[in-house]
Amino acid sequence: MHQFKTFCTRILIAAMLVGLMASCNSRSKKYVIAVVQCSQDSWREKLNAELQAATYFYDNVELRFANANDSVELQKRLLKQYADSGVDMIIVAPITSAEITPTVEQVMDSGIPVITFDRKIQSNKFTAHIGCDNYQMGLTMGKYVAAEMKGKGKVVEITGMQGSSPMIERHRGFTDAIKQYPDISIIATAPGNWKEQNGYHAMDSLLRSGVREFDYVFAHNDRLALGAIKAMKANGITRQVDVCGIDALNVPGGGIELVKKGTLTASYIYPTKGDKLLELAMNTLRGKSYSKHTMLQSELVTPGNAQVIQMQYDEIADRQHQLKQLNGKIDNYLSQLSLQRMALVLSAGLLLLAVVVIIFQRRIVHLRKSQSAMSALYSTDISRAAIAAEEHTEVENRIHITSPMPLHNESESFATRLREVVQAHLCDSDMDVDMIAQKLGMSRTALYRKVKALTGQSVVELIRESRLKLAHTMLAQGHLSVSEVAYAVGFSSPAYFTKCYKDFFGHTPKNIKNQS
Ligand code: FRU
To answer: Fewest CB atoms within 10 A around its CB: which of 43, 142, 185, 514?
Structure first.
């Protein structure tokens, strides 16, 4: 019976541990990243979709998207709101550089990392930036336009939003290139706002103000270029004016198709690369190595290569479609697997139930014995009564010890209280066995025995392990130095912290970046 009792107790403790492990697992760090777009259009939608698809590769990230609709004030507010809500990171495409800079700096000061993408701010206070070389794009486009014009003629430039970094850099690159050609002049530079209707209005006002003699239009993106073409048509410009833009999206009506059809003479691939952006974000969050500046490759699209580029894109799209189908299948298998798992858990539950039933059956047998022992007490046979009384006491003890429910509940609530006390004082270097014993209202020895029986560890080991795990999480976030983390988790000596950490995780805390 004793062996059976031990067996049952072990099963219960194992079940508790499995439950504890499962709950620890499900509580593994989940990263929340806010993505604050400057506006909404097909380029941004593509990027958002890529970001969302890339979350598939990380099972612990949640993205929250917002769009500032080209309003600087709204974008500042969104950044502050997300920072206050305590997200783990903010990814932002700053509408304009100078105006958004102070808000990004404030967010960084509050301890939340910020990645800027596609557009830049005007300070060095950001975690990382990923985007294209917009100056180079403007420069290459300028050389291309000059070659097409055979070094002679008049150009109109329709820019993106003033003060945004791609606008500033594309304009600088383009004018630097044209400067090299004395017979080419940029006769007007009209501000647009990245949208087709802005391109229309910019060109419309130029034409109405009398600027009508030009041979080429360089628009800072393909949407602006389309708007400018429509405005020229509406204003009766029938002669051939060449127009080029930037973005070269491979969507119906996008830049690649427009170049193929001859509507645009050229465009420039402005890559979205949501997968690379999320990879960068996750690397920084998980304390892996990353570079502060990531430059994305881009390429000029001309009538000579548009067809080939589109074919390659279509090929990739086919592969992506196949991958999607495969992912669907995997999802299907996974849900079947989790059903099977549930069935397994249920059957394990039934097994446990069966064990409990056996225990109770045995208790009933003992109770019956006890009953007869009690009645023997009333007999005149003193020695039989004494034996019976002894048997009865033992039965009671057994009932108490083998009773699974009280043991489970009591241990569980003790484990919960213990966890609460330890967690609440993790950063307190004064936390020790006496303190915990006092908080739990029990003696040192009783606490030691209970903790040992429940976890196999001493109280001191338990405290140390909890502190080290918290330290590990803090180090992985990469904001604090090793000494800062050591003090923060209640170690009074960073050297001793390093030793304990190495003993537990097998590598030094400094080395965490190479481990995760
Ligand atoms: C998309 C977009 C692109 C342009 C880029 C500049 O929102 O307007 O068309 O190339 O932003 O940041």
So the answer is: 514
User: What are the backbone dihedrals phi and psi of residue 221, each rounded to the nearest 5 degrees, phi first?
Assistant: -150, 170
pTM: 0.64
Choose which residue among 136, 247, 264, 272 to substitute to test ligand 1 binding: the one with the highest number of ligand atoms within 8 A of its C-beta: 247
Rounded CA gap, 76 and 102, in Å?
A: 9
Q: The tokens of 260 are what?
A: 């193929």
Instruction: Name the token pair of 301.
Output: 């699209």
Residues 279, 115: Cα–Cα separation, whole Å: 12
* Rg, the chain, Cα only: 35
- The dihedral through the CA atoms of 384, 387, 392, 398 has a sign that is negative
331 CA to centre of ligand 1 in angstroms: 35
pLDDT digits (tens, 9 = 90+) for 196-206: 999 999 999 99
Atom of ligand 1 nearest to the CA of 39: 7
pLDDT in tens, 286-320: 999 999 999 999 999 999 999 999 999 888 888 87
Contact 222, 249 (CB under 8 A): yes
237 in Cβ contact with 210 (< 8 Å): no
Coil/strand/helix, residue 431: coil
Give CA separation, 472 vs 133, 289, 394, 504, 510, in Å: 37, 17, 49, 11, 11
Question: CA–CA separation, 118 vs 425, rounded Å?
Answer: 44
- Give residue 60 CA to ligand 1 midpoint distance, Å: 30
